[in-house]
Amino acid sequence: MSSDTYDAFLAHVQQLTYLGDAAGVLDWDQQVMMPDAGTPARAKQKSALSTLRHELLTDDDLAAWLDDLEAADLSGEQEAVVREIRRQHERAARVPEELVQQISEATSNALPVWEQAKAEDDFAAFEGALEELVELKREYADAIDPDRDPYEVLFEEYEPYLGIDTAEAVLERLGEELPPLIEAVGDSDTEMADPFQGTYPEADQEALVRETLDALGYDWDRGRLDTSSHPFTSGTQFDARITTRFQPETPLDALTSTIHEFGHATYALGLPDEAYGTPLGEDRDLTVHESQSRLWENHVGRSRPFWDFLAPAVEEHLGVDAPAGDLYQAANEVYDDNLVRVEADELTYHMHILVRFEIERDLIRGDLAVSEVPQVWNDKYEEYLGIRPDTDAEGCLQDIHWCHGMFGYFPTYTLGSVLAAQLDAALRSDMALDDRIRGGEFDPLREWLGDAVHQHGCRYTTPELVQEATGEAFTADYFLEYVSEKYGDLYDL
Questions:
Q1: Catalytic residue set
Q2: In what order do the strands lie in the sheet with 239-244?
Q3: Which of 43, 371, 372, 457 could form a disulfide with 280 if both were Cys (CB 3.0 to 4.6 A apart)?
């Protein structure tokens, strides 16, 4: 094999990446800036890009280059690029182009349907779109591998290397070990402080979150902050954009969700510039991505030292003159009546994930009809959290993921939380993190994560990256130790 073969292969891969990133900008625009009536055209635009990308990914030249490179003498980084593209190529080659186009159009069309259905609390209005997406994603999984569990195939779109068995084992373990802690918290006589009373104008909340992003080190030259119906982050190492949402009575929600999205953006911005266009310049899938957002949101943003640091800004922008300890308690109160995942505390959050995981798994496996989702959702919330939604808007319509066709995504939230705790433990063995946070010194934390995680892109598989960053295999032990100690102290357990 000549070096020309790898160079031609790499140029092809870069075109693949650029098309995908262009589609990402169109998706960001649809959720943030696009006029309401723009959906028909946007669906066609995104479908065209998806089709072009699929054609490049299944191209005969790419298949030939991959075969030639299989026996070539490559560097470790080159081998990683070939590994990642081969995995994508082999999956994509099994999927008909027409199906790719149908899925792209269906997801674009479903977004405004979901937004209206949620606003009007009308699941029936979304039911048809959801049925279409479930069927299309079943077809997609069947095309890739008709002999395997379709949900497992879809899960690998978001976490290809840990395995569904690992996800199920972690969710099962947390489902067994967290409820006793949640129950003990609920039985505790300790009352958390509630310094946030009344309403807080959006402009004041935005001023607070922008100052917080400044302090954390968000690169405004490569990013921006906007609002959307569901907070998300989109972009690359050159352009990583954050969205959040503001609610008058709950300013903590905007703050914590913005810090969460900052974690995602920081990961994207920390990827190596020179590797853009290749897997070496891309994130290592969603378990690792969620570990970055959950580490910043929970291990930094919900820590006591952080509130020692942020208390003056809270007073300046929101007029809340409260001790840091009270702010810390408010940021970590465990609510036994919270129906909304993105507003959930660290403990009950994973019960929210468990509900979604079980429902979407049964939908894809054909064990649950779409029409049954509201009833099953409400029953599971009553079983796992002891509460029952009064409306579908605060129940099964609250998340955006299914209208994007993202079945298999939800387990990565819990896997990411577990990895965040493991990374936090490794990080604390290298520096006095609490002192850094209290002093507003966030550069060392970003640099540590850059060295341990971000710089590698997709150089390693997920298990390899976890081993490289922490010196240990992936484990839920650190997460369970962390929440037991933290909430034991908070609630005098």
A1: 261
A2: 225-227, 239-244, 233-236
A3: 457
